[in-house]
Model the fold of this input.
Amino acid sequence: MIPPRTFEDPFDIPALDSALKSTPFSGNLRYFPTIHSTNTLAMQEAEAGAPEGMVYFADEQTAGRGRGAHSWQSPPGSGLYVSILLRPRIAPADVLWLSLAAGLAVREAVHQTTSLKADLRWPNDLLFGRRKFCGILTELNAEVTRVRHLVIGIGINVHQEGFPEELRPLATSLQIETGKHWPRQELLVALLKAISRESHALTNSTGLGEATQSILNRLETSSSWIRGKRVQVEEGGGYTGTTAGLDRRGFLLVQTANGLQTVLSGGVREL
Done:
């Protein structure tokens, strides 16, 4: 049995607005005690004209989504479930860099809040050891040459004290890793500030080269998955190999017995 939660960790919206006054997100926060999916609502409102910088976050999701057909467990009061609406001035082909930068932003926020250093599994899962505590889902609406809007959905396991038996080898939380309760409000502020910095660097530079090189350099030092990891790739019928860095677009390269392969969308798991 998973022990019940016996504490509260509410959000203080006015305090959040004040702490985020240097970012595009201040005054654009929408909190829900419960919601089907923050990403679904954010995409719907973006299509209806919601401005850049809207942030949708919830205490509980009843239909949280991960990459592919995966769901994301979002029990009440246990995690940080947040979706961020952006309208970046970048080409659709460059969106992966923003998704990778979001992973770095989560890693920075978690380290700032807890001193823990997470591992990044391409493209944007965050782990402690082999157990995942955060997933990121980036969705967009785009034309051939421009992005109309983009939503970064982030789910972080914060207060979970345990998981069902089948998930224990795969999932963890900040509470499990440290034995401490970490305020979600503090984590959310650190996260949104980091997202603001990453987005600004990518969309306001004279060229993407410097910003993407910074992302690549930081991934090389903060992820054990970029080079030298033996992996199983769930793409094109599946194959195995050793990770060999990222290409100039941010896609993962895997050296296989049949040559160098580029992972475009498939999941990557350690052998």
Summary: The helical segments are 13-19, 38-47, 95-114, 174-178, 184-203, 208-222. The radius of gyration is 18 Å. DSSP finds six helices and twelve strands in the chain. The mean pLDDT is 91.
